[in-house]
Structure to design on (135 residues):
């Protein structure tokens, strides 16, 4: 079940903590989203929403990887901003699924919770990179 696997383990002395590495969490979120989408009913509406969710969810991590290879600080920030926008879009699709297909409601909630944490990490990173974070 997805809920048991979303506790991403770190490889330090305290293996019960979730990873603070947004890239790792985004990658794992993509994997769980793939599993989740494969559970959706074989109906036209779910194909479309599932496809959009899959694109948005996997785009988060892909943009973080692109940021690593960016040619400037400005490009680096832009990729993080795009990753955050993808996270917001993925949340929209998950909410649609949660509210339209009650059988997977609890799994949607679990994915939404993890997505919210990833979004918070991305948002904080963007603010820090732009020098707008208040301490």
């Amino acid at each position: 079940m997805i809920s048991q696997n979303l506790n991403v383990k770190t490889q330090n002395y305290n293996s019960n903590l979730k990873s603070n590495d947004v890239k790792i969490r985004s990658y794992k979120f993509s994997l769980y989203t793939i599993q989740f989408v494969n559970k959706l009913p074989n109906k036209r509406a779910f194909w479309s929403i599932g496809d959009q969710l899959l694109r948005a969810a996997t785009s988060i991590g892909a943009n973080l990887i692109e940021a690593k290879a960016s040619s400037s600080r400005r490009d680096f920030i832009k990729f993080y901003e795009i990753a955050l926008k993808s996270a917001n879009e993925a949340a929209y699709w998950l909410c649609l699924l949660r509210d339209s297909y009650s059988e997977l409601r609890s799994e949607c909630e679990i994915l939404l919770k993890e997505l919210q944490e990833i979004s918070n990490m991305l948002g904080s990173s963007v603010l820090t990179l732009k020098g707008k974070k208040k301490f």
